[in-house]
Amino acid sequence: MKNGFLVFLASFVVLGGSWCGFVLAPVLQLGGGKQTAILNSSDLYPVNRPGQANQGLQVYRANGCAACHTEQVQQSGVACDVVLTGAGKNPVAVTNLISSLKLNGLDKDLADALVDKITAAGGKAEIHIVATGPDIARGWGRRHSVAEDFLYDDPVQLGSLRIGPDLADVGTRQPDANWQLVHLYAPQSVVNDSAMPPFRYLFKVQKIGSAPSPDALVFPKGFGPPAGYEVLPTARAQELAAYLLSLHAEVPLHDAPFSQPLAASKP
Ligand code: HEC
After folding, report:
1. Nearest-CA neighbor of 167 among 108, 98, 248, 99?
2. Which atom of ligand 1 lies nearest, measured to the CA of 139?
3. Which atom of ligand 1 is nearest to the CA of 188?
4. pLDDT tens, position by position, 115-153
């Protein structure tokens, strides 16, 4: 072949270029990721999931949950909320002033001006940063997802289709293990008209022996197995529920900040 070397060179450049773009650049950008400090705290984030939850990630993967669910919260911006922290010596004037003002979703300059106004009236106020965007408004998280959220996930279950809600923070939304299990066994028993398919093969139905098993699912009234039977989660179902409960992308980080009211912050 006359132009053999040229063809080799051209393919080398094309393949080498794509490898640099798709493999080398992401590794350089994110490969050195490590735990990072939570904002205004000395705690590190994230901590590795407990073993059972780590197994659950594989169950999640094997059952194709990522075909309908994402684990990536998007955010379009930030806004400021002005929060009253003290009414001072003249509470009536401060309360009147507050009731005439719009205090949420402001830009920084406006928020500063309002804090000055409230301070001048004798009250005390501070500015809280909140994330904004459709995902945040749906309650799917308090901030956008960042690389640190996935540090211990292998493989990462980002997902790209949202037939169901985003699950990045579902452990905060639905912290009850029984709810998660009942939802997997019979989604419509806990969510009206749920379009999620049931995953019954992760459970076994058996006759109640001398006494009901402690692990048996507790169903809402009108649902559940026939009288005399109980539904037990298999090890895989328990691992999957542990994984779902471990999904908490809810702490403020340097690259995804928001203000946490002191009373609600984690110990
Ligand atoms: C065919 C699409 C589909 C598949 C596959 C699917 N889901 Fe869902 N899921 C949905 C839909 C739709 C909803 C919303 C209705 C509801 O809450 O039941 C949902 C809701 C959920 C919720 C409740 C979320 C919330 O915010 O309350 C959880 C948890 C969940 N799914 C977990 C899973 C897990 C785990 C798997 C894999 C075993 C899975 N889903 C597979 C469609 C799906």
Report:
1. 248
2. 26
3. 18
4. 998 888 888 899 999 999 999 999 999 999 999 999 999
With a 6 Å cutoff on the Cβ, whether 187 touches ligand 1 is yes
Sign of the CA dihedral running 179, 194, 237, 239: negative
* Chosen CATH of 53-74+137-245 out of 1.10.1040.10, 1.20.272.10, 1.10.760.10, 3.40.50.300: 1.10.760.10
Take residue 174 and report the two structure tokens written for it: 């639905």
Task: Look at domain 77-132 and name its CATH class.
Answer: alpha beta
Q: Shortest CA distance to 65 belongs to which of 193, 178, 225, 183?
A: 183
Q: Separation of 192 CA from ligand 1 center, angstroms?
A: 13
Where along the chain do its domains lie? 53-74+137-245, 77-132
**Is residue 255 within 8 Å of residue 143, measured between CB atoms?**
no
Residue nearest to atom 40 of ligand 1 (CA): 65
Tens digit of each residue's pLDDT (9 = 90 or more) over 219-266: 999 999 999 999 999 999 999 999 999 999 889 999 899 987 654 444
Atom number, ligand 1, closest to the C-alpha of residue 244: 29
- Tell me if 203 CB under 6 Å of ligand 1: no
